[in-house]
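#struct-help
A.M.: can someone run this one for me? Single chain, 578 residues.
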Amino acid sequence: MDTNLPPAPLRAPPALALAITGSGGAGAMRAGEILLAAAASAGLYGRMTRAMGPQIRGGEAAALLRLAPDAIESPPDSIDLLIALDWENFARFADEIPLTQASLVLADPDQGPVPQAVTASGARIAALPAKALARAIPGGRANMVALGAASRLLGLPRELLADTIAHQLGAKGEEALAANRAALDRGAAAELPALARRLTLRPSAAPRWQLSGNQATGYGALAAGVRFVAAYPITPATEVLEYLAPALAETGGVLVQAEDELAAINMTIGASFAGTPALTATSGPGLALMVEALGLAVASETPLVVVDVMRGGPSTGIPTKSEQTDLNIALYGLHGDAPHLVLAPNGIGDCARTTAWAVGLAETLQVPALVLSDQALGQSRAVIAPPPPAPPTPGRLLAEDLAAFRRYDVTPSGISPMTLPGTEGGAYVADGLEHTPRGAPSASYTDHAAQLAKRARKLAVFDFGADWADAEGAGTIAILTWGSPTAAAREAAMRARADGLAVRVISLRLLAPAQPARLAALLTGVTRVLVVEQSDGAQFHRYLRAFYDLPPAVTVLARPGPLPIRPGEILAHLPVQE
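D.P.: on it. C-alpha cells below:
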C-alpha cells in the first residue's frame, strides 16, 4: 500500500474576495458571472458562490467571488470589497459577508442608510451612486456601473470586461451593448478609494475550465458513458439536469423528467437493467423517497448512480444553502443488509472525476452508487485547471458461457456474470425477493446467507486503489475531512505550514465501503486529528468512530450551514498542543 504523501504547497495563493449584493433582479449575479469570466481571460483563477433566499422571485441575492493568480476554491475569511446595489434584504445574508477594517464598501447613497451590521465592522465606506449614473445613460444598468468600478479597483483591463459583456449579452443587440459599455465606463471613472491590496495578473496559456460543480457532475456522467437520466427537478440539483438534457440529446442519450422521485429512481433502475448506464440527480428530500427502490437495486444487483446535491435540512430545510447532513441516510438509510457505494467529490472539478468514477464502480460492482455533492459545490462556478480523468474500471461482467449461466452465481469476487434483456438463453428474474443463484425466489437460510455474503464480499475484496482519498503534507497533525470543506482545509494547512507547523490533509472520496487499513496507513505518525465537517450532529465524526481507529487526540469542528467553513476557522481549531 502506497503511504507516500505528495508534497504540499507551503503558502496559500494571494487572493481578493468581493461581494456584489442587491435585491432579486438587480443583476448582482449577472455582474458576478461577467467578472469571473473576465478574470479568467486575464489569467486568474477564481470561484463565485451564489447567496440567495428560497424565494422563487425577488428576495436577497449576492455574488460572492474570490480571485487569485493561482488555483483557489476555498471561501475567504473576509471580504475585501463589497458593492451594494441596494440594502434591501441585506440583513438576511449579512453573516455570509464577513467584513473587517481592511474591507472597502461601495454604497449607493440613494438607497438608504448603510446597515449597522456594516458600520459596526469598521470597514471603509465610500459612495458609488450606481443607479444615478445608470439613469444618465439610456438603457443603462446599475450592475454594469458596479462592474466597471470593480474592474478598476481589481486592476482588470476594461477591454476584457467589454469583450466578456459582448460575449454574454450580445444577443440583446448593439443598442443594449452600447448602454452596458457606457455604464461600465461610468463606474470605472468614479472617484473611489483604493483597495488595501491588488491582484497580480499572470498571463498564461495554461488550459482553464469555467463551470459549476453541477455542470462538472453532468460532464463526468457523460464521460463515463451515462446515456439515460430520469429525474424530478429539485434545488440545488436541477442544474445537473439542465446541463445533461441537451448534452444527452447530442450523444444519443435520453433525459426524462419524471412525475416524482419515485418514478425517477425506478426508471433509472429499468434503463440500467436494460443495459444502459443510468443516473438520477436529486437532493435530500428526493433521496428519502428513493430509498426503497435503492434496496431493489442492491437485491437485484443493478448498477446505477444517484447524485445527491445536499442542502440544509430536515424536511424542506434551507433549499438554497449548503450542508453535509445527508451522510447518515446515504450510509445507513437502506433497510436490511444492503451494501452499496457512497462517494463524495472534494472540489468543483472533482465533481466530474468522482461522478465518472462512481459510474465506473457501479457498473463494475453491479451496485447503486450514491454521490454526495452539495450546494456549495454544485451551485458555485469556478475557473479551474482541467481535472484528471477518473480511475479506469472494467465495466459490466457479461456472461460468455450461457449454457452454465446463473445470474447470481456465488463467485470468489462476489461479482456474478450478467446478461442483457433479449440475450437468447440469458433470461433471469430480477426483483427484490431473496433468490437462489439462478434468481428463483427463495426463503431458505442457506440461499439468504450465501447471497448476503456475496453482495458484501464484492465491495470488501475490490481494490479501490489510492483514489479512495486525497492526502497531502506530512507531520503529526492531520485534518480529516470530506466534500466541500476540503478546499478550506487545504488552505488552512498551507497557512499553518507557512508558520512552521507541519500539517497533513486527508479528504475521503470513498465513504462506503470503509477503508480502515488505508486510512491507518495515511495516519502513520499522526498523533492529533482535527475532524472538519458541516454537520451539527457530527455525522462524519461518528462514522469515523464506527469504522476507523483514530489517534487518541481528536478535535472536532462540526457545525451546520448555511455559513461555509473558512480557513481561519479551521486554523483556530487546530490541535497544536500534545
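A.M.: thanks! The chain has a mean pLDDT of 94.
D.P.: also worth noting: The radius of gyration is 25 Å.
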